[in-house]
Fold this protein.
Amino acid sequence: MKYLFCLLAIVVTLSIQAQTTKEESINLNQLWKFMQGDNLAYAQPGYDDLGWKSIPVDKIWEASGYDPYDGYAWYRLKVIFPSSLKSTSFLKDSLRIYMGKINNFDQTFLNGSLIGSNSKNVAPGTRPDTLFKKAPQGLWDVKRPYTLSVNDPRIKWDQENVLAIRVFDEGGQGGLYTGDQAVSMTRISDYLVMDNAKNPYTFENSNLSKTITLRNISESYSIEGDFSVIAINKLTGDEIYKHVSKNLILQPGQLQAFTEEIKKPDQSAIITYKFDFSKSGASSVSTDETPYITTPSAPAEPRINGASVTAARPGKPFLFAIPAAGKRPMTFEALNLPQGLKLDDRTGIISGKVDLQGEYRVALKAINEKGVDSRELIISIGDRICLTPPMGWNSWNCWGLAVDEQKVVASAHIYRDKGLMNHGWTYINIDDGWEIRGDLNPKRDPKGDILTNEKFPDMKRLGDSIHALGLKFGIYSSPGPLTCGGYTASYSHEEQDAGSYASWGVDYLKYDWCSYDGIAKDTTLAEYKKPYFVMREALNKINRDIVYSLCQYGMGEVWKWGGEVGGNLWRTTGDITDTWESLREIGFGQIKNQSFAKPGNWNDPDMLVVGWVGWGPSLHPTRLTPDEQYTHISLWCLLSAPLLIGCDLQRLDEFTLNLLTNDEVIALDQDPLGSQAKQVIVDGDIQVWVKELADGSKAFGVFNLGGKTLNYNLDLEKAGLKPGGELRDLWRQKSLGKAGKTSLLAIPSHGLMLLKLK
């Protein structure tokens, strides 16, 4: 009997490998029926949905006219499953219903019966409930494949079936959005998991190293084939690496790891990982791109970096840590400080209060055993703060609601230990998740003051520890009764909350629209402004400067009135994600708001998605390629955008540190003129954006939004630039000589050249 079982297994494996039939599938990327609200009757096949509106499933529902909307909604689609799906497939045991990705939580029904929830199959007869919306954060980025036995009675072969998706959107973007939804029989390739994204490439001396795993998740089938890894230089097209493993056999449940070492390139290389299934002609392919370092190492000699201007209001606490790179120990001097300020010459921290308005020009010095660096700092004491875009870290894009005090403190210490604060990074901001959840009591103390949850036992202690490092402390709330994550927010307690923030030493407030949807009477401009006026008035009554960040996703063209309600910065878009599509749409869409950016008032296209991200608690390396990350940082700096790191700083790698510590690039963002770059050329996939600088020079990015490397002949005069000046490559910090009338530039796919013309 044992011999017969082995023989049958061999026959099954050989049959799988011999498969050559073209397998059929049903494309579900079409218009579905859509209804806001919640009613389990919507899942039933006999329900009359004729009055429902139609909606595509290749974009969030906010992009289809349902903005703003959070909460429950349903999708329905009628579709015939032909029995030819079975006859054209090789594996005939199960049907795969793939719903793409869903933001945030789903229950998926077939013909009135629940078949899956939040990417997991459910057993027949499982009753739907509301617990599916209590799942962990981050499910918006998880694929939803649901499988049923081919003989499952819930399937109606050659008849009309009704798919119904119950979605709960906790806040922000919602719904089915990837456009790749489909129905097919399960294929052998579905059982091969090729994981090349679990870890990024790491630098090992002169090589790049990475481990890739192949895993057979089938319980019954073996997989056989060849696995190859090929690296191609993006600019030259030359093959720089190749490794092939022949005749691999992965038994059911088996995992095999491969470590690849590639010589460190000076440009990115495209890596193709390919598994060719034996004899079938089928392949599974994944791609990757290698990181490359452009930023030169900082010298041992002192070098003062960061903004050349800072500000506070009269009589309000002042804090500024001189950002200087170079060998430690280092001492500092600050000549001509205004009365009320003092310098700690060991740490470079300037603190105190200035009562008299004025513009004070302070001569800074940084001194170590290798030399001295000097620079002027303008301290502006008046009615404006935030004269350059804020630079800092925010907890949301990595930790989401899983943030806690230990993660925040660790991030602050890494600012010091990794030297980020030596390049102007200043704020440590807690996003949602520090308050008590709205469905628990008490939400506030008997006086009405807001309470922190058990993860943040002492906010004042936390604020003091951040300030002791010379850093600033940020926090989060909402004008509605609840935050996006369902925690207690500030509605009807604005003055009390502002007072709490002041007592804790808060320097920055992100104020997120969220549940104010349920308070606003309508979507008029007056209703959009109202809650932000209320909190602004509350902040005006405290004895502390707090940078005021309006997070309401660009509604009502907020850039036109954000300054009027007292905002220092305002979100212009929905949430960014770590995909090229999101980066491209958001970053290159910052056009009509350009004229509204100025010192003290900044357009905010959302936080940075480099490094390890994940919206908590599970993290992954950003899915942006290295060239896309160069584009991300460069464009945000050209746009004078707030720079808020959104990654786990404890996993800060060499490449990400290179992105975040190039002082010539950061200087564009912190330029005191505060001019936002303009889009001046659109030529196919090429875009040119030009930024005016305070010293009269211009910076510009030549971006390639296409999928292939392009050689582009830039006409400087067409871009509004004058030939003859010195041209400088800002990422590599080197001169390119005098600029001619035209410049031929090789621009990698989704990458750029970032240049400055004096």
